[in-house]
């Protein structure tokens, strides 16, 4: 659409930091949760024994007490997933759970996750040490096609945490890699500064050379609580631009987490960046 060639190494997604955990869990059984094909995403990152919560739940009769009352038909894409035997699942502990994208069946996923986390990775067994839990995002709300905001992965985390803490002897332990966590911005900066110059087809003298440290990095977002707050916490060289294209629709700046500038559209944000950078480069 933009007629710009984007390479995979130039794209950073919410679950991209999960790559850093491959060495820790590469050969361990892990459960991936979320819409789409979360297990396929984790497999591409290098995790060798990953199973989606959709497939995992199928091995346990009656694990979802509301299952018989769910009349909707959901197409589960399990063709690309590794095949496991019932004996494997019953005997091997889940070493960690990853919330890769927004869960679809909240009631089932919360129930199954509570079983995994309370029982040390073996649902239905005695209570044991909680396996690690990771979230790719912690957005409470996000803007979709509906006129007002929709509940995001952060809302799912709050729900899971609230229930788990009421039924467990110890509070839920988890790690969230989503904004406004400063590690998200540190990771993005590291990736940007490590990109070879020849990622740009118009660069004549790249030859795999790395870029110099960047003077300014722009955070363009519509959610002050995660986008702008995160950029402000990360500090220099981040410059925050708040758009009125989603969660934020105010006339002025956001009172609690003000951005460096506020614009109406992403196009205006891009125009501002280009003009500013052209002035600085002239």
Derived from helix and strand composition plus strand pairing, the structural class reads alpha/beta
Order of strands in the sheet with most strands: 2-1-3-4-7
Helix content: 25-40%
Shape descriptor reads globular
Amino-to-carboxy terminus distance: 29 Å
User: Uncertain spans, ≥5 residues at pLDDT below 50?
Assistant: none
Instruction: Find the count of extended strands (DSSP E, 2+ residues).
Output: 10
Helix segment count? 9
Overall radius of gyration: 21 Å
Helix and strand run? HEHEHHEHEEEHEHEHEEH
Describe the sheet with the most strands.
Answer: 5 strands, parallel
Q: Mean pLDDT, rounded to whole units?
A: 90
- Beta content comes to 5-15%
Describe what is shown at a glance:
The protein has 282 residues and is an alpha/beta fold.
């Amino acid at each position: 659409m933009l007629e710009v060639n984007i390479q995979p190494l130039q794209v950073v997604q919410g679950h991209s930091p999960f790559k850093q955990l491959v060495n820790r869990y590469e050969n361990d059984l892990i459960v991936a949760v979320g819409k789409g094909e979360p297990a396929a995403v984790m497999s591409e990152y290098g995790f060798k024994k990953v199973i989606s919560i959709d497939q995992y739940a199928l091995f346990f009769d009656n694990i979802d007490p509301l299952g018989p009352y769910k009349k909707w038909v959901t197409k589960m894409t399990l063709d690309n997933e590794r095949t496991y035997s019932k004996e494997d699942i019953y005997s091997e502990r889940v070493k960690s759970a990853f919330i890769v994208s927004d869960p679809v069946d909240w009631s089932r996923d919360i129930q199954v996750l509570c079983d995994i986390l309370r029982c040390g990775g073996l649902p239905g067994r005695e209570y044991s040490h909680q396996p690690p839990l990771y979230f790719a995002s912690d957005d409470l709300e996000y803007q979709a096609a509906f006129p007002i905001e929709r509940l995001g992965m952060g809302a799912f985390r709050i729900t899971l945490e609230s229930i788990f803490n009421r039924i467990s002897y110890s509070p839920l332990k988890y790690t969230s890699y989503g904004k406004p966590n400063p590690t998200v911005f540190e990771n993005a900066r590291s990736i940007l500064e490590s990109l070879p110059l020849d990622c740009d087809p118009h660069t004549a003298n790249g030859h795999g050379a790395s870029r110099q440290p960047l003077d300014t990095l722009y955070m363009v977002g519509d959610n002050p609580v995660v986008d702008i707050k995160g950029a402000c916490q990360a500090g220099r060289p981040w410059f925050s631009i708040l758009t009125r294209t989603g969660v934020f629709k105010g006339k002025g700046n956001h009172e609690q987490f003000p951005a460096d500038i506020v614009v109406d559209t992403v196009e205006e944000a891009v125009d501002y960046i280009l003009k500013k950078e052209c002035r600085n480069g002239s």
